[in-house]
Records
---
Amino acid sequence: MTTMDDVVAAETVLSRVDGEGGRLVVHGLDLEDLVAAHGFEATAALLWGAIDPELGDLELGDPELGDAGEVARALGSARARAFARVPAILAATEDLAPIDALRAGIACLAADGDRAAVVLATAAMPVLLAAAFRRDRGLPPVAPDPALGQAADLLRMLDGTPADPGRVRALETYLVTVADHGMNASTFAARVIAATASDPVSAVAGAVGALKGPLHGGAPGPVLDMLDAVGTPANAAAWIAAALDRGERLMGFGHRIYRTRDPRADVLKAALAALGPRDPARTALAEAVERAARDALAVRYPGRRLDTNVEFYTALLLEAVGIDRALFTPMFGVGRVVGWTAHVLEQRATGRLIRPKARYVGPVPAGDTFRAAANG
Ligand code: ACO
């Protein structure tokens, strides 16, 4: 079966995923260095500025030094603009889960020009997510505070009260960690849409749809479901073995590109530790499940190293930050939207229409002699 594994779909200056070495470089910075020196807004400045230094007429300063004040101000005022659309979007998405409300809400946005659309789509993600979450609990939406950063404002819009700095730092580390990751499925979807000369809002709406699937961004909620089902550390090995016998995939393990440990898992594990002492029983359970899963996968697939991926520690970190598991997948989008929009800008600036071929293997007209071929 064709999966495009080895196809190079674009040239990019945004990020490099080294699957053999277990390394992620984001526009010249190792992930660990990016996270240590850049908050969410500085990461947006780094990635957008890599393609379009004039983005939104923002004075980006030197993005590599993390001078992201103008980006923060632009995102803050765009969050307020997005909030003005919230009543109409909530009315139209009443029966939808948060990820679907987000997809629909993004599609309702309109901006004047690509740069404004990039900023608005990025700013709207936390606003729409928080409003949909509160609506499902019978609570009114909380208006954004344009003076805050995206991470702090998201927690505030979810809870209705200011968040403590430790939670903000942990969430911000998460958002930066997932900001960009090569030609992943949702980024590719965004680039395909952008390559038709469609607009950034449409590209982000399509990317949210791609992110939703459990093989991409939908895994962290099921990671916690798995921990709940395992119940105790002593049950981990038997539960994992039974799940694999049933042919199930273990959420939070394996990756198409990494042949070793996903470096994002360790960055998020460190962020979890930095939050301070957690529930010891939960920690012991998570460690037992991770160990049992890695051991069992190594035995079943000796030729294919399947290790912990970003989603396992995403689940544990977001749970510790106090995020409801229904929000895990859309939360991934709140971080990844920076990468999506940077790739959209890059595709528009440097790419051409993406139009691969298909190999036709269906029935042929009577008397025709052609057989399966790559023929568009
Ligand atoms: N649990 C059980 N078996 C697995 C897992 C897993 N997590 N991952 C791979 N395998 C199996 C495959 O079924 C395949 O078996 P087969 O040869 O008998 O068919 C074999 O290992 C090799 O699979 P790969 O080629 O390595 O897997 P692929 O590249 O197709 O899929 C994917 C990668 C989708 C991430 C897969 O590992 C998976 O489903 N993981 C669980 C879901 C998950 O954690 N998703 C988040 C990924 S990270 C991200 O996108 C942000």
---
Amino acid sequence: MPDTPFTFTLPFPTLIPSHFDNHIERRLSSLKGQFFDLDTYQKMLAVEDSLVYEVYEIRRPEAAGEILTGISIVHPGKVGREFYMTKGHFHAVIDTAEVYLCMKGEGCMVMENPQGETSVASLYPGSVLYVPPRWAHRSVCTSRQQDLVTFFAYPGHSGHDYSTIERQGFGKLVLEGEKGIEIVDNPRWNKP
Ligand code: 6PG
Ligand code: NI
């Protein structure tokens, strides 16, 4: 890891960083229990463990003062009426924020804090989202054809807490409805 200034690029159309240290692939199987329609999820998984999203990380020491960056690519798709999404997480050091810049595609960020307050923000090219400390976050791709690509930056010492969301789920679901995108209450939410 260089301790000298460094530059990387995000070349269109892929936006895959010219330099990255880690490439994560998340498939349907890693989102067990997160999609609302469990029956359809099982049927889809039995056919194929499809690739749902990918993350390209530019690593730095996981220390306060450093900033971790990267690209998150959520592919188009649905489980039943529910759009493809990331696992979602609180930061292990919960008092750490995050900034997202949407580079391509369309979608939304589902967020909630430990009190169970929820918020859903639209993501579109050029939109910058500030996720304050204490807010869990999940990216959702609502385009039928295009990947949702975001550039993210967050403090080096944040870490990830996935277990809380795996246990509770998020309070809101993002579904495809007759009239377009529907944000609905998650009937299986274990409200904190
Ligand atoms: C982070 C960022 C971001 C996130 C990806 C994948 O804290 O690292 O929020 O990089 O990890 O968008 O989402 P999941 O971490 O929820 O799988
Ligand atoms: Ni995060």
---
Amino acid sequence: MPIETTLTVVDRLADDAELTAVPFGADLAPPVELPVPVTALLSHHEAKGEPGEVFEVPVVRGDGVGRVLLYGMGDNTAPALRKAGAAVARKAKGRHSLSVLVPPSDDVSALVEGALLASYTFRIGETRTRAVEEIVFTGADEQAVRRGEVAARATALARDLTNTPADVATPEWLADQARLIAADHGLAVRVWAGEDLGPFGGIRAVGQGSIHPPRFVQLQYTPENAGDGTPHVVLAGKGITFDTGGLSLKPTEGMKTMKSDMAGGAAVMAVMSALTAFDVPVRVTGLIACAENAISGSAQRPSDVITQYGGRTVEVLNTDAEGRLVLADALAYADAELDPDAMIDIATLTGAAKVALGPSIGALYATDESLADSLLRAGEVGGDRFWRMPLVEDYRSDLDSDVADLTNVDRKMSGAAGSVIAALYLREFIGKRPWAHLDIAGPARSTADEGHLTKGATGFGVRMLLSYLAD
Ligand code: BES
Ligand code: MN
Ligand code: ZN
């Protein structure tokens, strides 16, 4: 269902292309003949060649009239091309075929990503997708186009998993999807359920109020020619299939988007699905901590004390701070059992991160400078931007409990620096590993069809993590 548009790569523009997109300033050889010079057209439209600008122009086509889309590509960088690709694909809605003449660029894959991601739709029941059926890229390096396609389809997979309503997308369903991904892409997979979840006290506590019991999922990718020196990265995703808040119940307004509370887990699954195609040179283990934070007679209560993986006890003062409870198990498990060189978690963790940075930028916390720098750079390249946030030592004591090793929220319940406090909580479980935490509560969803984004889940983080791992 996600991106139904197909993609081909050819050397030359076809003479009879239904609709042809040509960048401003391109050397226009036949078969494209404009009625007036490009410069005249641009001044007529008051166009500057900025990315996102697209004009339809009638052209001479034998005895008849053909159609050309002139599109701006700005400074020809990845962000500009991503925007240009999206604008062109949106203009081609409802058409059978679009031919895109690609400008010379090192970032062709960004153009492809933009075009495909703007063509994403999610509907249940009668589909009314009007995305262009086929895009033909001309004059582009085939490998670059295919890389863009893999990244876009992985992002679309994350959107699909996240957009699927929680009555379908239960922890069991997510684990089944992980098994399918493993089978399709040659990954090892292990799923913990029931009794096996014994040591995972956070996942059990969060899931105990739901009729859909929790799961813990592990996907493993090993590159060809892996040896003892091959680095190992662990990705851990928050997989809360629905977050009612638990007994610390959310109001409806805050609850109705909470089927997206597994966007981090979906991002991890999507990244895992693309590693083979990207020929990623490092070992990667994906962990997805899946539970439904439901409300019922069996739900955990504010003041219950739980035991996280590894034995640390936690006084749960707010059942709505559940993401950190499931992620702490995943991080402690990875530290104890997987011997990773770096651990990265990704989660729709706090409303505070959304308030601080809004819908365009994710919050990044890290204990390791070079890991932080690499991730920030990968974010600029991949198109998922992050901003580094501080792990403020002064606030750590706010997590001290009177009755257990830790509380799960600021015990003064001031609500201040909620995203920082959540990060400090997770840091308790990383041992001595280099670690980064990505809070994507803001950018995980979009409220509009805009550029490469579509309403609902965005798949934010997938392309950043892929470009980090591929380098
Ligand atoms: N899933 C939410 C965070 C969230 C909020 C994501 C809005 C996306 C949009 C998380 O589980 C949560 O409820 N966090 C609480 C923490 C608080 C109880 C300390 C929050 O942010 O209010
Ligand atoms: Mn919550
Ligand atoms: Zn949550």
